[in-house]
Every structure is written in C-alpha cells, then in structure tokens.
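Input (structure):
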C-alpha cells in the first residue's frame, strides 16, 4: 500500500480508508450503511485482508464499525487526543512489529489480532508515515460529510465536490449576506 504516488494521485491505502469511511450512513438524505450488504462489505474490506469470497462475519463487521466510527472522529478533528485514544483502545488487540528491510526503511507487519482490523491499522499507519493522513477530510458541508482525499497542493480543499457542496454553500452565504 505504500510507495510514491504521482502528483494528484490518491494512494491505495487512502482510497481504501475513504471507501470504508464512506460506507457509513451519511449525507442528506442519509445513505445506508453499505457494510450491511455482504457483497459490498466484502469489496470494501478486501484491501484490508478479507479473503476473496469470504463473507465477513457479524462480529468482524461490528468491530469494523467501531473502528470506522473512531476513524471518522479523527478525520473530523485530527487534533482530538480522545479520538486517537479511542482508536488505539479499540484496536489494541492488534499487535504489529517492525521490520527493517533496507537502510532507512521500516515496514510494519501484523503478528496478532483480527487480520482485517490489523489491515485497517496498517493502512492508517502507512498514511501517517507518508504524511498523507492529513489529506483525508470530511466535506465541510455538514449535510454531506462525504470523506475525500485532498489532492490540492495547498491542502485546502473543503468540499468533496465544489459543484455539489461548495457552490451551494457559497451561494447560500451570498444570499444571506445580501438579505442581512
């Protein structure tokens, strides 16, 4: 999942985390929890180590939903120590070890715990190590909250889609100023 990315490209680990986060009920009207559909859940969890053709058991989905909620809290407020602590608590059964593969390179590998939850932990760790975690954002439109990857050089993208959310909010703010 790690490696250099072309400018503007979304790293594989980020795309997988974003798909997981967007599987939650969100937006207006509320989208369903797509983890409720076994085929969709398989596709969403496959990048984290779910074996091909293996329907995720209910206990695993429950664990993933808790981790997903923790990750959303971190995305919503990256500086919230409690959100990070909750994520650490809910993934504490996952044990990873480091392996030095070349001078200046370290790779984490899971040695115990639920493999899919471990895959999520390793994806987050790789994004943090690459400096890409801060590019994962929730849309600034509170009615939307769709998660996206900020590909802008300045790291200032606020909406998952300017056309759908940004323009609407800007027009609404303009009209409110004109009436006020």
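Output (sequence):
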């Amino acid at each position: 999942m790690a490696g250099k990315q072309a400018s503007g490209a979304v790293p594989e680990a980020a795309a997988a985390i974003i798909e997981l986060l967007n599987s939650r009920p969100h937006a207006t009207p509320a989208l369903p929890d797509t983890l409720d559909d076994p085929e969709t859940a398989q596709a969403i969890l496959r990048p984290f180590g779910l074996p091909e053709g293996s329907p995720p058991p209910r206990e695993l989905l429950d664990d993933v939903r808790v981790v997903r909620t923790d990750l959303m809290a971190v995305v919503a407020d990256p500086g919230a120590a409690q959100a990070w602590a909750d994520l650490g608590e809910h993934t504490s059964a996952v044990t990873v070890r480091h392996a030095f593969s070349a001078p200046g390179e370290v790779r984490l590998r899971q040695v115990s715990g639920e493999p899919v939850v471990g895959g999520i932990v390793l994806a987050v760790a790789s994004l943090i190590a690459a400096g890409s975690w801060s590019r994962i954002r929730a849309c600034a439109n509170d009615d939307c909250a769709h998660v996206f990857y900020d590909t802008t050089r300045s790291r200032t993208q606020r909406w998952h889609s300017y056309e759908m959310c940004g323009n609407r909010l800007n027009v609404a703010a303009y009209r409110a100023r004109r009436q006020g």
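Notes: The beta strands are 95-102, 105-112, 136-138, 147-149. The mean pLDDT is 87.
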